[in-house]
Structure formats: structure tokens, C-alpha cells
# Entry
Amino acid sequence: MLSIHPIPAFNDNYIWCIQRDNHAVVVDPGDAAPVLAYCKDNNLSLTAILITHHHWDHTDGIADLLVAFPGIPVYGPHNDIATISHRLAEGDSVSLDELQLTLSVLAVPGHTLDHIAYVSDIGLFCGDTLFSGGCGRLFEGTPAQMHQSLNKLMSLPGDMPVFCTHEYTLANLKFARAVDPQNAALEKYQRWAEQQRQHGKPTLPSNIANERDINPFVRTGQPDVIASAATHSGQSDIAGEQVFAALRGWKDNF
# Structure
């Protein structure tokens, strides 16, 4: 049976491990040590690595994992990470035979220009594009690119799990409440997330429907979100990517 487990890394990263029987695939291993320990403890053999973008906290573990599991494929976007063996773009797919799983590839630029996501009926592995209650900073892309990428992800089925790679939820929800204070679903979700963290449990995965309800960065067409963005930015008559840009700028300095 297929299962998905978060392997904690650094202060707030999750390296997602997809496993079936004694085979495993990891997503964005920024650190090899916790992956190697998890595989040893659970008698797992790593059969592939999936990379969403080039940032070090998603890639620095690749080399050591290839020493421990030589010859396994490393899937990722077109960038300068030499250890990626299979370069992917939107429309490509990844067949993980040992897991009996095929993932489709989506281009989701914004956080970085090379960012991709992996999607199947088991869920969305979206790296740093979408967070629960938030989204990634724009290190390389434009507000228009990120707005389009988030809209693309929001078109996925509502019950699809969202496996993002940072435990940023509480900070994101604090900002979301500042933007959208009358949102009852957001208030309820914040209480749940606080309880999860108080008990040392992840707030992830989220799902697409939840993000549609609580995440201001994908709710840029909602009147309350538009009004808050306009007031904070000192603009009027803004819509779409302009609302997103105002929110992203506000969050960057929140």
C-alpha cells in the first residue's frame, strides 16, 4: 500500500517520502542525513529523487543520497543542478515503477523561474509555490507569473492533498487573518493548526479546497481580500495579479 510520510529537516522543512513496501522516493531532500536515518529505520531502499526547484534547502542532500543509493534517477527542472539526471517540463510525466505511481509535471514559476510541481491522484507536491495559508516569496519570478501558477494549482480537484515543503502555516495564518479577519473558515482552521503544533504534529498536508477557503493569495477575487489589499497598498480599483502583488508586498514586510 502506498503511503506518504514527512521527514523533518532543518528548522521547518519537510522532505516528503512516498513509499510502497520497501521502496521509497523522496521529494526535495535538502539534507541527506534524516532521509538516510528514516530509510534505515524503516528498511527502505531509495529508488528515485524528485526536485521542485534549485534552492539549496531542497537539493543539498542529493549528492550524499546518490552515494548511498548509486544510480537512482533524480528528476527535476531545467537548471544548473548537475546531479539532476532527468530534466522535466510541463506536460512531462514521471513513472515510478516500484511505487506503481505516475506523476504529471506542472510548470509553476514565481518563487523561482525553474519551479515545477508533481501531481497525481495521491496529491500535489508543490515545493515552495503554495503553502498552507500562503505562498513562496518571489525570488526570481513576477507577481503575474506566481498569480498564474497559483490559479493553475487551484484548478486541481478540491480533495487533492497539498504536500508543501515548509511548516509555515501558523505565520501564514496570522497574516491571512490580518487580510481577511471576517473569514470564519480561516478562524476555525487557525485554531486547528495551533492545536496541531502544540502537540508537535504537522499542519500538512492541506488540500486544495481548504486553500481556496482560507488562503488570501488564491482569494484575490474576493471582495474582502481586494478591499484589504487596496487599503494597505493605497491603491484603488485593483484586481487579479495587482491584488496578489499588493498582498505579496504586504506579507514580505509583515
User: Anything to note?
Assistant: DSSP finds nine helices and 14 strands in the chain. The longest strand covers residues 2-9. The mean pLDDT is 97. Residues 144 and 241 are 6 Å apart (CA to CA).
